[in-house]
């Protein structure tokens, strides 16, 4: 009597869980690293701590990221620089006026970065860049340059359409960036320990900053409600 062909056994539940676990590890490592980088700083964070928090071994971490520096770069790309292509596309197809566009940009920044744990990354870079020049150069190339270019596009659009008065774009970009950087620095420093009466409401703060910016940039007075909506 011929033997019946042996069918391949389906993967076990344990095997499936292991595959899912392996697929999830980069994201878990990035989440753990973000918590530690923001809370402790880059220099004080050890890869062993990241691995422990993510529930893996240090060796497993190095399978995905060759060094702490590469882990940090992946963090920046995941939460900030990886968003620039989408933001550029949104700006390219924006149909409102330039005041509305600038308002939209600040809204998006707050919703996608400012209100998240990733808002601690800019503050970390400002405090530790001098001690890590290679990371500072990376951040300049990956975040500051493309981010400044996007803001400059918005402002230049306003100038070209006669909605904004002519301006020195280099320093106008810094004017837009300044309140964002202040807010991230405050949120992750004095904002964590000051008394309730001194706390800043981020949305209200950005609304006031935007109102002042638009009144300064515009060829006419900014309309009522020019802040974040």
UniProtKB/TrEMBL annotation:
InterPro entries linked: Homeodomain-like_sf, HTH-type_TetR-like_transc_reg, HTH_TetR, Tet_transcr_reg_TetR-rel_C_sf, TetR_C
Region span, Disordered: 1-20
Domain of life according to the entry: Bacteria
DNA-binding region: 46-65
Gene Ontology molecular function: DNA-binding transcription factor activity; transcription cis-regulatory region binding
This protein's record includes keyword DNA-binding: yes
Keywords recorded for this protein, A-Z: DNA-binding, Transcription, Transcription regulation
Annotated ranges, domain HTH tetR-type: 23-83
Keyword Secreted assigned: no
SUPFAM superfamilies: Homeodomain-like, Tetracyclin repressor-like, C-terminal domain
Protein's name according to its UniProt entry: TetR family transcriptional regulator
